[in-house]
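pls design
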């Protein structure tokens, strides 16, 4: 089986040059709408409190980073939680002033999450500093670390 390309129309016949079907016409029973077209509704700004949104994002990322790293990333999560707390306060003040923004619950959530993150970050920093300063770094898997401390005098 072979493929043959399409053949050009025969230009000697006038029906080859004529359109195959008449152009499309709307059905005769359809009536176009009366009157001028309606104007589009006015564009309104979305009612989003950007301070609350970013405050919640920063505070949640700071707390998540703190939990995920078991407090080891507290020096990084502390500034994020402080910024989330501050943005939550700013977003709540904007709503309380009556500016045309919504999301007061999100601003309060950002504020509370930021406060919790700051407290947890400070506790984590204190824990790691105390662990490094006073921790016992002589790891041994022996049951008796020093034979002279064994009361029976046995050495296994």
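designed seq:
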């Amino acid at each position: 089986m072979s493929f043959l390309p399409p053949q050009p129309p025969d230009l000697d016949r006038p029906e080859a040059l004529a359109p195959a079907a008449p152009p499309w016409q709307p059905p005769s029973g359809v009536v176009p709408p009366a009157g001028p077209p309606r104007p589009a509704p006015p564009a309104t700004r979305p009612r989003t409190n950007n301070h609350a949104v970013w405050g919640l994002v920063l505070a949640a990322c700071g707390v998540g980073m703190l939990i995920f790293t078991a407090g080891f990333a507290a020096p990084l999560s502390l500034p994020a939680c402080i910024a989330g707390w501050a943005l939550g306060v700013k977003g709540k003040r904007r709503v309380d002033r009556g500016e045309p923004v919504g999301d007061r619950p999100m601003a309060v959530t950002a504020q509370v999450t930021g406060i919790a993150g700051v407290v947890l970050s400070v506790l984590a920093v204190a824990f790691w500093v105390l662990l490094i300063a006073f921790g016992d770094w002589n790891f041994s898997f022996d049951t008796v670390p020093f034979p002279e401390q064994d009361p029976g005098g046995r050495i296994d």
